[in-house]
Prior knowledge:
The complex is a heterodimer.
Chain A: E1 9-12, E2 19-22, E3 30-32, E4 38-41, E5 49-52, E6 69-72, E7 75-89, E8 92-103, E9 107-114, E10 117-123, E11 129-130, E12 137-140, E13 143-162, E14 171-179, E15 182-189, E16 192-201, H1 203-209, H2 233-257, E17 261-271, E18 283-284, E19 288-290, E20 295-303, E21 308-318, E22 324-338, E23 341-347, E24 349-357, E25 360-370, E26 376-385, H3 391-420
Antiparallel strand pairs in A: 1-2, 3-4, 3-13, 4-5, 6-7, 7-8, 7-13, 8-9, 9-10, 10-16, 11-12, 12-13, 13-14, 14-15, 15-16, 17-26, 18-25, 19-25, 20-24, 20-26, 21-22, 21-25, 22-23
Helix pairs in contact in A: 2-3
Chain B: E1 5-7, E2 14-16, E3 24-26, E4 32-36, E5 41-46, E6 62-65, E7 68-80, E8 83-92, E9 97-103, E10 106-112, E11 129-132, E12 135-152, E13 163-170, E14 175-180, E15 187-194
Antiparallel strand pairs in B: 1-2, 3-4, 4-5, 6-7, 7-8, 7-12, 8-9, 9-10, 10-15, 11-12, 12-13, 13-14, 14-15
Amino acid sequence: xxxxxxxxxxxxxxxxxxxxxxxxxxxxxxxxxxxxxxxxxxxxxxxxxxxxxxxxxxxxxxxxxxxxxxxxxxxxxxxxxxxxxxxxxxxxxxxxxxxxxxxxxxxxxxxxxxxxxxxxxxxxxxxxxxxxxxxxxxxxxxxxxxxxxxxxxxxxxxxxxxxxxxxxxxxxxxxxxxxxxxxxxxxxxxxxxxxxxxxxxxxxxxxxxxxxxxxxxxxxxxxxxxxxxxxxxxxxxxxxxxxxxxxxxxxxxxxxxxxxxxxxxxxxxxxxxxxxxxxxxxxxxxxxxxxxxxxxxxxxxxxxxxxxxxxxxxxxxxxxxxxxxxxxxxxxxxxxxxxxxxxxxxxxxxxxxxxxxxxxxxxxxxxxxxxxxxxxxxxxxxxxxxxxxxxxxxxxxxxxxxxxxxxxxxxxxxxxxxxxxxxxxxxxxxxxx
Amino acid sequence: xxxxxxxxxxxxxxxxxxxxxxxxxxxxxxxxxxxxxxxxxxxxxxxxxxxxxxxxxxxxxxxxxxxxxxxxxxxxxxxxxxxxxxxxxxxxxxxxxxxxxxxxxxxxxxxxxxxxxxxxxxxxxxxxxxxxxxxxxxxxxxxxxxxxxxxxxxxxxxxxxxxxxxxxxxxxxxxxxxxxxxxxxxxxxxxxxxxxxxxxxxxxxxxxxxx
Lengths: 433, 211
């Protein structure tokens, strides 16, 4: 039984003599000298030099210094390595950083950083399943991940130590599949592939976890698996649906409980020709009763207008209090035929709504007017009490629809920005059995 | 648990077995590899010093897998072109045995599962599918490894073995399978990838600066 207690080891670079610290005990397979960039064989007592890379890329400064210990959700981890990997898309290089994290009991995990976007990643224990009939989707634990990008990733800079062999210049085919906030990455070299699962985390969480000074770099753009701030779209629309349903019930209830009662109807004739003009055009109707509670009154004017007009000035007057509601209405209907065909404007009917009329005994004062040369106009006045009105509900429904509609639009914009970077051909990951 | 005792034919030190079916062990005093016969212990070789490795597990580490407690009583260190990994030989409380694989603290618990159809060593390929016990597995890696070191009690003799070929398979859940082609007949191990925390490991090694 070994009772030894390994400690971090201090070594010197065989090339430049700079001090090296081995932090992952005997897991280290490759160590990179931070001073001269020599890649060293950690399994060799003499630290044989495996590769020297001339690093104009040496300018890469880790955002989290190697040796920094931080608190991840499942315990403390130390940053022991940094790998910069680069893909080239349409002639442009895109680089991201992978920080290798180590805990002697929990093993290795990664923090990846691209343009201020961070992912907490670890090796995957189970194998994602190919989705039948498409390479664009894979599934894991019942979640479908959409292919985002497949590209050859070159290792362009390394620092620290790794439990596997690393070389600058080595290439792997990396495929990302997203189901925000998670991301599955497949790394293939030859015909073997390994999978990891990452979860998007805000930079400030990384800063807190590792006690880093200052502020994390601001994320640029939308990242592949960045969760949409509009994730609750379904909820928003659901609450809209609930409110719309409540509105509908209220509307039906009101329609059923409305009196919708005809309280007055009469037909009159009006002639504006000069020989009739000595007649006083204004008159009052019989008294009618408006029953029930304070509610609306609907007044419909139908007139035998035909390429003519009728204007009626009304006053609805309470016989007992003298309170009057004055309003003017126009009924006009013009029609004909021109080079575009038949045309028609207006109608022979007009409906006016007088809201909030208290109950009581009322009469109408009526003052018609029409063109003096059109002969007699017959018109009918119909008064109804407590008519169900749906316009308010329509307006309310539209108003309620604005927030979810705006959120939906912004969400679409966000997804558009996400997928602007993605797409393309996906690899064959082997068919699902 | 029976603990048949004996003495090392090389140095005379007492040798104890934690598992009654252990076939081979290593004398902790003189590093002799001892094989159990019906009568006594026979020295078949000597092990070199174990390579240093980073596994937090050691002989005597205890844990629990699916409500069955176990103790690590032996191990094999395999080396392949990307490094090394440990196969810890476990004795379960019910007297059966199993393996806890530790590859850079990625753990898997597996059990030898006899009586299943297996592909021949030269027929197995990455991305092939096999089904055992109603679970479909995909071959993910084929590894040619070397015996790099042994420690403690093992259920078979390893002293005459040098190389081993393994095919590792995964399922779409966390099931895993290993086809071991190191012996005369292939052996199938079935099990699952497990979270280290779920194993509730006790009596682990200590690492300076880590608790």
